[in-house]
Amino acid sequence: MQILSDALNGELSILVVLPLALAMITVIVFAHELGHFFFARRFGVHVKEFAIGFPPRLWSTLRGGVTAETHAIRRLAGPIEGPLRTAQELHGTDSLPKGAVLLLRGEDPRLEFHASQARRSNPIAVLIHGKPPDHCLPHLRSLEQPVLITKNFSSVIDKQDWSSTDVIARIEPVNATGDPNLASVTIGATRFAINSIPIGGYVRMAGENDRFNSPESFAAQSPWKRAIILLAGPVMNLLLVPILFIIAALIWDINGSSIVAVAPGGPAHVAGLRAEDRLLRIGNRDIDSLAAVQAAVHASVGQQTQVTIQRGTENFSVIMTPRKDPPESEGALGIQIKPDFGPGSVSTALSRAVPRSLYALVLLPVAIGEAISGHQDLELAGPVGIVQTVGEAARQG
What we know:
By secondary structure, this protein is an alpha+beta fold. The chain has helices spanning 2-8, 13-42, 111-121, 137-141, 154-157, 223-251, 267-270, 290-299, 346-373, 383-395, and strands at 47-63, 66-72, 80-86, 101-105, 125-129, 147-150, 168-173, 182-187, 190-205, 253-262, 278-282, 285-286, 305-311, 314-320, 335-342.
């Protein structure tokens, strides 16, 4: 932490503060979006994308979905993926989104007509669910795009309306079998992405715009399920608060108190205490903060009390009697103290996390109320303010 403080006070401070602030924002956003994602999946809502940051995309992968084997009428050169579109979207127009995979049904009596439209709409591949009639095969083979036939998607295809959903279809050759025409197709997978603008994030669910009425859409869920999915993000942020307090305390926190000065003639001076002595225990109370010193001394006023001290590598105990009416500015023991900082213990971190979290949660509505009543200005902070706050906190240790 000393290296960090030195860097923050130097010319390279922005190079340290900015990554710290971005890391903090990323953790908060990740927890928030994870709440939406978890309950959406828990209630059977199809999640199209889980992304940290905003595009352009740096990295992504597809996970989940339903996979089936397909037979390629036209050989597949390599893996391809794109949004799945249906013949319904060809009605009245020959255009499809760039890079789309066109889904047709083998038993559709207009299959040959739709295949003709595919020449003009130019999808990257044509996926046919169910065996097409033999008289359609020559026409399908004449298409420039890869054409694939699958039979075992009925449980997925039949229950979904894939129109206008941005559901991704990924098709790739299955080289292990030695059959050059065998391929696998996965639809309904979730894209996990890391984007290049490292502020914010999002979860894209099917049916957020109420156009997708599949049982796996957000719009098709009951009101209480939709409410839980939406509230899960803020709730996850609330649960994150004690976790962050625990982590912060384990890394750097107040873990004791040391003597800065000893008043001549006071109880501490008579007992032989010196500046830089560390207070370990007063009476039956361990000292891990300034508040612990104050509470222990207050409980022992006028009584002989054993005080345990650390001086260098040596620990020893002395007997002192805290004064009831000490001289002004000297205190009951006649010492000035300062907090010690360092990594905290697990037990201390756990014991402090809950009260600190409750204090922060109570303070928020209090601050809003005071701002509304005019007693205090409501100082809101955007990304720049967050960076400044993180930098100031790091400078203070």
